[in-house]
Amino acid sequence: MKFHRCSGILLHITSLPGPYGIGDLGESAREVADLLAEAGQKIWQVLPLNPTGYGDSPYQGFSAFAGNPLLIDPDALVRQGTLKASDLPRAPAALAESVDYGWVIQFKLAALRRAAASFLSGASATERGRFEEFCSRNCSWLDDYALFMACKEAHKGEVWTNWDPALRQRNSVVLTQLAAKLSTEIQIFKYWQFEFFRQWEELKEYCRARRIKLMGDIPIYVAHDSADVWANPGLFQLDEKGRPILVAGVPPDYFSATGQLWGNPIYCWDVLAKANYAWWAERFRASLRLFDIVRLDHFRGFEAYWEIAAPALTAEGGKWVKGPGSQFFRVLRDQLGDLPIVAENLGVVTPEVEAIRKEFGFPGMSILQFAFGNDPQGPTFRPHNYDRQLVAYTGGHDNDTTVGWWTSQGGDSTRTGEDIRKERAFAKAYLGFEDEPVPWVFIRAVLASVADVAIIPLQDVLGLGSQARMNLPGTIGQNWKWRFHRGDFTTEMCERLANLAQMYDR
């Protein structure tokens, strides 16, 4: 698919400012849309919006279809009358700097539970009809998701493989009994999805009115502890107790000398193929209802994926296994038409991977931070080697900020101190600068490039260091927490971005 020349910002919803401990779909999201329009930007890219599970990672969600209720705007519920202003938890001041998921989950979900009780007992006939229509339209995933979450809550958060065998194996009699027993909880989880998607559609319309496209993210894998795997165990390589036999990851790379062990279960691609990839087709349909464009995570895994035996402690002992290849995308194209996909083709990219991407016209990605090191693929990340059919980034959500990368002493990747010194010297020579702020040198480089699309993480626009990093692969506990303050994205920054976008025909 051909993308018009433009630029945009990478900024996840959790990072938005606001009083409830985490960014949401309310006023601050609309303010960002206004600022992007003022700055001449045409794309707002976000990370996966699914309910977060292990490590609070948006790439380890409880569902590939559901929305994260933590992103619901409570103020909208007050305006609707399902909450009182006195019901809303005001976060401690420290949470304006960083998301404390423990606090947010406890206090925000309590408020959302009160909103659900109010709605389910007192909604007007019109609102009740909208809710029921939403539930009916999304029953293919919503029924399993709501039951899964209600069961998980009843089991105090235990992984589903630790549930009673009959429930783990989805005995139909047991499922019917539990659906009746947990009916109130199930309705609460469905109501949260109703509100999430209603608010998202309102934000999407707000962005569309400002000619801003929303770009989302489809992780290639789903979490083992998810409604997707519990409801569809035959699509994944699991043992008789539902535990993964083989898991996903990548071999030793820029971020880790022992590779990355993600732990997600591997698909049974032969089973999926026999069903004409129906589960995947439904997943794409759901994503394309949410977004104008989708970034397809770990694109190379569709050509060949790194498979690791489940007991392994690192990813080193894995092996490459052929994936579904071009056939997968042909089937999806036949069912869905042209796909507005950006292929995340980073890492070990082979000619076979690039052949699939080019066959379907998917733009690839380039990260400028990778252009100056000693990786053999480094030259492909240098702007003079860019194709037009490309999305160029200063950095991505797994990278340090550009300031953090520039001032790094090592330890966040496999680079040595000497590697870092050489990188800096080469970057200075290549980009031709001395004392200018490094983020804006990088921003200008990708905006000036021939790449059809350029995306800048907001942290680079703001000139922030490593404290604003979104994720360090292979670690848990400190990721996905960064937030910015209202007013940080200044009028001067907007003007500077707008001038560059105009200068470089974006």
Please render the helix and strand layout as text.
Elements: E1 6-10, H1 27-38, E2 43-45, H2 74-80, H3 101-122, H4 125-137, H5 139-154, H6 165-168, H7 172-181, H8 183-209, E3 213-218, H9 227-231, E4 246-250, E5 260-265, H10 269-274, H11 278-290, E6 293-296, E7 304-309, E8 319-322, H12 326-336, E9 341-343, H13 351-359, E10 364-367, E11 390-393, H14 402-407, H15 417-431, H16 438-448, E12 453-457, H17 458-462, H18 491-503
Helix pairs in contact: 3-8, 4-5, 5-8
What is the overall number of helices?
18
**Overall pLDDT confidence:** 94
Structural class: alpha/beta
The fraction of residues in strands falls at 5-15%
End-to-end gap: 18 Å
Helix content: 40-55%
Radius of gyration: 23 Å
Characteristics:
18 helices; eight-stranded parallel β-sheet; 506 residues; 12 strands
Nutshell version of this structure?
The chain is α/β, with parallel strands linked by helices. Helices cover 41% and strands 11% of the residues.
Question: How is this structure best described in words?
Answer:
The chain is 41% helix and 11% strand. Helix 4 crosses helix 5. It has a domain at 232-362. It is an alpha/beta fold and 506 residues long. It is built from 18 helices and 12 strands. The mean pLDDT is 94. The protein has an 8-stranded parallel β-sheet with strand order 9-6-3-2-1-12-11-10. It starts with 5 loop residues before the first strand and ends with a helix. It has helices at 27-38, 74-80, 101-122, 125-137, 139-154, 165-168, 172-181, 183-209, 227-231, 269-274, 278-290, 326-336, 351-359, 402-407, 417-431, 438-448, 458-462, 491-503, and strands at residues 6-10, 43-45, 213-218, 246-250, 260-265, 293-296, 304-309, 319-322, 341-343, 364-367, 390-393, 453-457.
